[in-house]
Design the sequence.
């Protein structure tokens, strides 16, 4: 396979996903924040809360309108650039995505009209219910997509059909309720809630800095501060659980995230570290830090809830460790090649109607199917993802996460003490935190997606086997088209959003 | 029947009035429509034809092709 084709296809998918994710988290979080605000309005009857709700609803509408359908392009790319993969997973992806289309999308799009057009036309409580249903619908949309993504990280609930080369779903609930799917959904939507809270606090801070919309700003900060703080606690819990799942199901990703080359008991967590730049081999030669600050035993505890637990390093996972019952990748590659050869033999035997030969091949395939993807690797070290990007992205995400907790705490304290209007330094920090929240969520996705390389489906299909045999030039053309289109959309979003924020509550909203 | 007609009329006017009274929303709808045209017409038709659908007519042909792709010697 042409390496540049794989790289361009990968770059295109990454570009589309990154841009798509600029829009999604704010929709997920702001929908709930708006619902909280409207609930307060309905309960208190205070018209000021209605004004506040309508203001944030307008910003929600801008983000929703510009972001809607940007994810469809990812599905186009599956069919065009990733046809082997698309065929291989078709049945598994079909169900969650169909449920998303029927249930969540229609729920969301029906009630969004009531949310924007229904003020003064439907009852207060019906309008409030619509706002909540939009929030729930938007988050349910995310559920199905994230279930599909989680299946790629931890494929369960299916079996491989050698006649069609497709994975067929055996149990929908195993796919939907796999621990990785539940965790991925919770952690991802919670990141959206945190981002939206930071956004509301940042925009409110801008008003306070300009000494405008003081009531809107302080009340909004109160809601967002509390919501963000509560969600930060939950995101720590789901993040912690995510680390344990990763240590069990994607140990190479876990080791890469920590740059842990030599496995060990009582493994420390690198709280802060700078890796040596090693252009010759930056991935797996050695544990290579210029400097680091460690928390003793914490990695063992984080991975297995036991400070004495053995955390396998990259060397164990690549070269094997019999004492820890870790199989070397070279052996997995042999098994994978046997599985691929068995699939070829099975197909040939079926064509020749040689039942005995087909049965023999099928048995070999079944024995080795769990290592199918390893058959495509050229060398054992191909199983290691890019370490520096995974390592730094994880620390960036977590570090910023702790900053946001501090931001929410300060917000709540300042608002409750009625001192938030006068803290100019805090306003500036809060405004600067908006882009950092976007950066943090993107880094989270980098850990999840770059960290699972070389796999597009964990252990079953590497990226290199997933791409379509198309011209590299056509992928380059569409890459440029997407870059231009999405950049225009992003600029449009920022310009319209900034204009609307500058207007404040004096102007009518997006309806 | 008459009740259904009244309800449908109310729903129609709900959307009609909503769209008519939009301000910023109009600009957003223009963006949405341009975006949908670009995505579903320009991108989909000219750049993103389904690889397997555009080359093979039957499921069997598609699976044969993918199996051949997956099992060919890459090294």
Sequence:
């Amino acid at each position: 396979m042409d390496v540049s084709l794989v790289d361009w296809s990968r770059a295109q998918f990454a570009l589309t996903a990154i841009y798509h994710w600029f829009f999604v988290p704010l929709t997920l979080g702001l929908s709930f924040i708006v619902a909280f605000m409207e609930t307060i309005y309905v309960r208190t009857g205070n018209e000021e809360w209605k004004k506040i709700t309508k203001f944030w609803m307008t910003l929600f509408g801008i983000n929703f309108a510009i972001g809607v359908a940007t994810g469809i392009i990812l599905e186009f790319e599956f069919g065009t650039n990733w046809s082997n993969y698309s065929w291989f997973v078709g049945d598994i992806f079909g169900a969650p995505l169909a449920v998303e289309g029927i249930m969540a999308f229609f729920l969301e799009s029906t009630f969004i009209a009531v949310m924007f057009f229904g003020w003064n036309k439907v009852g207060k409580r019906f309008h409030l219910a619509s706002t909540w249903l939009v929030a729930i619908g938007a988050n349910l949309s995310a559920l199905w997509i994230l279930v599909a993504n989680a299946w790629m990280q931890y494929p369960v609930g299916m079996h491989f059909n050698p006649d069609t080369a497709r994975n067929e779903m055996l149990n929908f609930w195993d796919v939907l309720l796999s621990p990785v799917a539940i965790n991925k959904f919770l952690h991802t939507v919670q990141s959206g809630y945190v981002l939206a809270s930071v956004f509301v606090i940042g925009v409110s801070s801008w008003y306070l800095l300009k000494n405008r919309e003081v009531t809107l700003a302080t009340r909004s900060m109160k809601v967002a501060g509390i919501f963000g703080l509560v969600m930060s606690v939950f995101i720590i819990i789901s993040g912690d659980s995510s680390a344990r799942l990763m240590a069990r199901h994607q140990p190479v990703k876990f080791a890469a995230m920590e740059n842990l080359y030599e496995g060990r008991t009582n493994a420390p967590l690198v709280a802060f570290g700078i890796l040596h730049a090693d252009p010759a081999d930056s991935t797996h030669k050695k544990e290579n830090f210029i400097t680091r600050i460690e928390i003793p035993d914490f990695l063992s505890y984080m991975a297995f809830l036991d400070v004495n637990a053995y955390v396998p390093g990259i060397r164990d996972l690549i070269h094997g460790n019999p004492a820890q019952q870790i199989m070397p990748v070279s052996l997995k590659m042999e098994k994978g090649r046997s599985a691929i050869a068995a699939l070829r033999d099975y197909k040939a035997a079926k064509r020749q109607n040689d039942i005995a030969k087909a049965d023999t091949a099928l048995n070999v395939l079944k024995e080795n199917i769990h290592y199918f993807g390893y058959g495509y690797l050229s060398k054992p070290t191909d199983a290691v993802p890019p370490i520096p990007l995974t390592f730094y992205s994880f620390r960036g995400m977590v570090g910023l996460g702790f900053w946001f907790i501090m931001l929410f705490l300060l917000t709540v304290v300042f608002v409750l003490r009625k001192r938030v209007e006068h803290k100019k330094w805090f306003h500036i920090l809060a405004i600067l935190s908006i882009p950092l929240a976007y950066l943090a969520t993107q880094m989270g996705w980098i850990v999840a997606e770059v960290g699972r390389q070389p796999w597009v489906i964990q252990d079953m299909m590497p990226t290199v086997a997933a791409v379509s045999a198309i011209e590299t030039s056509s992928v380059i053309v569409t890459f440029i088209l997407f870059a231009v289109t999405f950049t225009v959309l992003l600029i449009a979003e920022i310009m319209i959003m900034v204009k609307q924020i500058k207007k404040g509550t004096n102007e009518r909203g997006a309806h | 029947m008459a009740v259904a007609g009244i309800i449908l009329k109310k729903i129609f006017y709900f959307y009609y009035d909503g769209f008519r009274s939009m301000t910023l929303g109009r600009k957003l709808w223009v963006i949405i429509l341009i975006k949908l045209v670009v995505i579903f017409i320009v991108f989909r038709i000219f750049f993103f034809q389904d690889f397997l659908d555009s080359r093979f007519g039957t499921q069997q042909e598609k699976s044969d092709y993918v199996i051949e792709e997956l099992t060919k010697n890459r090294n």
